[in-house]
Amino acid sequence: MNDFEIDVIQGLSHSPKFLPCKYLYDEKGSDLFEQICETKDYYVTRADLELHQTKLPEISQLIGPHAHIIEFGSGAGTKTQQLLSSLTEPRAYTPIEISPTALALSVETLQSIFPDLSIIPLEADYTQDIDPDDLRLDPPARRRVVYFPGSTIGNFTREEARGFLTRMGKIAQQNGAVLVGVDLIKPIPELLRAYDDDEGITERFNKNLLVRLKEELGAELDLDAFKHEARFNSELNRIEMHLVATKPTSIRVAQHHFHLAAGETIHTESSHKYTIEDFQALAKEAGLIAERVWLDEGARFSMHYLVPDPSKGRLNQ
Ligand SMILES: C[S@@+](CC[C@H](N)C(=O)[O-])C[C@H]1O[C@@H](n2cnc3c(N)ncnc32)[C@H](O)[C@@H]1O
User: Fold this and answer.
1) For 30-39, what is each residue's pLDDT tens digit?
2) Domain boundaries, the chain
3) Nearest to 145 by CA among 291, 313, 300, 312
4) What is the pLDDT of residue 311?
């Protein structure tokens, strides 16, 4: 039994049912995500790109020369290209990516644009421990910057995000920094539209997970018995993506049978939204000091430059 099958059986056995969002990103899912970024309703990528375009001179000044950029979930590497272009003589770039296809494509593109840059790709799940040897440079870089753009940090619960920020701080080490994108709280209709676009691409992205169950695990299920739904959970300040059973139906994976009543859902992704103050408080709990924050012009999206708090002692990774 592989990890995917174990996680699917565990998630569907849980009440309420869920599937881990990392499985949304196979080759097809990564491609659909890139298409979502192009839709008029998904403001996140546009706001993040605008922020990159306007604030990178300041960001790169703070980072300084000869930095080792370590990116979590690099995807197509579009923003990375902008960041690397703005930096003075970056020492090395390590993309950490779960999708081998996305990783190979982005490395090929970036290496052709930056032929002299040392690119050290790491095909790995960033929610698991990273072997420190995979990040070590000889001689070490002047500074490590853990780069996590987009709003992926929002996929974690608050507790998970705190733990994740702590790990990123350890990887950055005492002289380093964490550069992380965070989506901001805004009116609910705008949020719901972003996660349920008119063109139905987010629906295909979400349902692709069921296609993976069929194709990769030989699961028996009725694709037409599910619809995509985006919900706002006001208690937890998050958008949730669900696959809702439109009629009583069942899913068989290996020897396991899971029954769903009409209206029952499988929770597939969360995207938590923050205020600036709230996120900075969370970073502080993770031992990181908020040194700078930048917003796009419409104040829809934020980018935080966090540095390890020296009073928290030595950090190793
Ligand atoms: C939403 S995309 C963001 C891509 C890019 N960083 C950006 O901001 O445009 C998330 C990327 O993270 C990758 N990813 C998701 N979960 C991951 C995990 N647990 N470990 C490593 N990569 C992961 C996906 O394959 C995808 O390429």
Assistant:
1) 899 999 999 9
2) 3-40+199-272, 43-186+274-308
3) 291
4) 84
Q: Is the pLDDT at 80 greater than 90, yes or no?
A: yes
CA separation (Å) from 292 to 44, 79, 119, 136, 177?
Answer: 20, 19, 27, 27, 11
Mutate to test the pocket of ligand 1, among 97, 130, 296 (most ligand atoms within 8 A of CB): 97
Q: Residue 88, Cβ neighbours under 10 Å: how many?
A: 11
Q: Is 150 in the pocket of ligand 1 (CB under 6 A)?
A: yes
Cα(97) to centroid of ligand 1, in Å?
6
Our answer on whether the CB atom of 22 is closer than 6 Å to any ligand 1 atom is: yes
Q: What is the pLDDT of residue 38?
A: 92
Question: H or E stretch including 19?
Answer: none
**Pocket of ligand 1 contains residue 79 by CB under 6 Å:** yes
pLDDT in tens, 120-153: 999 999 989 999 999 999 999 999 999 999 999 9
Report the nearest-CA residue for atom 10 of ligand 1. 73
Residue 220 and residue 226: Cα distance in Å, rounded? 13
**CATH class assigned to 43-186+274-308:** alpha beta
